[in-house]
Amino acid sequence: MDESIFKAYDVRGVFPTQLDEDAGYRIGRAVAASLGVPRVAVGRDMRLSSPALARALVSGLTEGGTGVVDLGLASTDQLYYAVGRFGYPAGVMVTASHNPPEYNGFKLCRAGAVPISSETGLREIAASAVAGRFPRSASTGVVTGRDVLDDYAAHVLSFADPVRMQRLKVVVDAGNGMAGLTVPPVFRGLPCDLIPLFFEPDGRFPNHPANPLEPENVADLQRAVRAHGADLGAAFDGDADRVFLVDEAGARLDGSTTTALVARSLLAKVPGATVLYNLICSRSVPEFVARAGGRAVRTRVGHSFIKQVMREENAVFGGEHSGHFYFRDNWYADSGLIALVAVLDLLGRDTRPLSALVRDVDTRVRSGEINSRVPDVCGTLAALEQRYADGEIDHLDGLTVSYPDWWFNVRPSNTEPLLRLNVEADDLRVMETKRDDVLAVIRSRAPQSSPAPRTSHVPPVA
Fold first, then answer.
1. What is the pLDDT of residue 455?
2. In 3-state terms, what secondary structure has residue 149?
3. Among candidates 263, 238, 255, 248, which has minimal Cα distance to 342?
4. How far is it, in rounded angstroms, from Cα 255 to Cα 260?
5. Model confidence over 57-87: pLDDT tens digits?
């Protein structure tokens, strides 16, 4: 069994060379033995290998004495909902999220949709699965089916007030992923004219990769928004737990901007609440949260950290630059569809177009994430800290250095000798200059060249 499929936050690999049915069975047995719970909710996405992997997983779970609640085809946030709403002790989602068609994997959580990562049990599950030695079970678990889609849709709609919303025209690109299943029942409860793109679940992803983080994968959405005169466009990833938005002109909103808009929507309902944002988000986010009457708390990158801090702070919402958005009233789990509904609720109660709402918050320029392969990660971080010792330095997650008109963060990858750079400045010239300066330090220590950086966002001229 290939140990490399076990990542920091999930299980992922190429089917069947890295991750096959035997691995799925072993993981099921390991989950049954490690968690020791009476039953586990299991969902799967539309990938061609998902039915086979789900069957193998269920076989391992039941032979290990664990009952299974089979949710069938589902989005990842639908699985989280089911685990939280119906009190299941654990859940496993068969998905590889936004990865290419040949990949598949598993996302795991405990009761209350609490994630299982390498630090909270996944390492033990991996060791058990790789060893392949499992305790004998006195009984065989029973499989029952449950359809939670209508209940889930009603839950998502609870984050909006459709009666107060004006009618909107919305284009949604499901990318042949699970949003094609979950979006329609939600939109039946909204005063919106839905224009669907690629809603047929198809694990081959025949139209474009289900990864809206890459600009080329939202080109169809942008064209459709402009062609239909829509108020907003939304693109989901394969398992529909992430969403990226475009405005009425087809301009992309990054995760920071959407974080601020969702925060404003929720703070209108829960005045004074705490909102989390990860340290890659724009400085504009905490400023905007404060103007909206909320309390902003900065966190590390990564869903396991954010969900933990949200519980500690009783935060109503948390957002990441990567398009993950977390909600207290969704068991602190992430949901792209809830984020979309929250923005629709905000837009539906405002007379201005989305681009005008964006101008309220999107006041700076960001580089986007730039990866560089370096042989000595720790040495490179030390060199950067020495070079920028005159700035305000913190080590919450990698190295962050702040100045009055710009800042940067460099984080090491969990799995590769990579450094991930993000730079933000008050204007384009400063951002590009400082980005190139920091990259020069990083890449002076790298033996090979890297692709030229790409500016991810430039605010519109007022």
1. 43
2. helix
3. 263
4. 9
5. 999 999 999 999 999 999 999 999 999 999 9
For 143-202, how does the pLDDT look when each residue is reduced to its tens digit (9 = 90+)? 999 999 999 999 999 999 999 999 999 999 999 999 999 999 999 999 999 999 999 999
> Do residues 47 and 19 lie in contact, with contact meaning Cβ atoms separated by under 8 Å?
no
The strand pair at 143-145 and 67-73 is best described as parallel
Write the Ramachandran bin of 250: left for phi over 0, alpha for psi from -120 to 50, otherwise beta: left
C-alpha angle 132-134-138 in degrees, rounded to nearest 5:
150
What are the structure tokens assigned to 103, written together? 């990949």
For residue 426, which of 361, 359, 366, 358 has the smallest C-alpha distance?
A: 366
Residues 229-255 pLDDT 10s: 999 999 999 999 999 999 999 999 999
Q: How many CB atoms lie within 10 A of CB 222?
A: 20
Q: What is the pLDDT of residues 265-311, one digit of tens each?
A: 999 999 999 999 999 999 999 999 999 999 999 999 988 889 999 99
Q: Which three-class secondary structure string do you get for 424-437?
A: EECCHHHHHHHHHH
Distance in Å from the first CA to the final CA of the chain: 57
Give the DSSP letter of residue 293: T
CA distance 241 to 261: 18
pTM score of the predicted model:
0.94
Name the residues annotated as catalytic: 97
Give the H/E segment covering residue 360: helix 354-361
Provide the token pair at 119: 């630090």
Q: Which tokens sit at 389?
A: 């010792």
Strands (E), 116-270: 143-145, 168-173, 192-197, 232-236, 243-246, 252-253
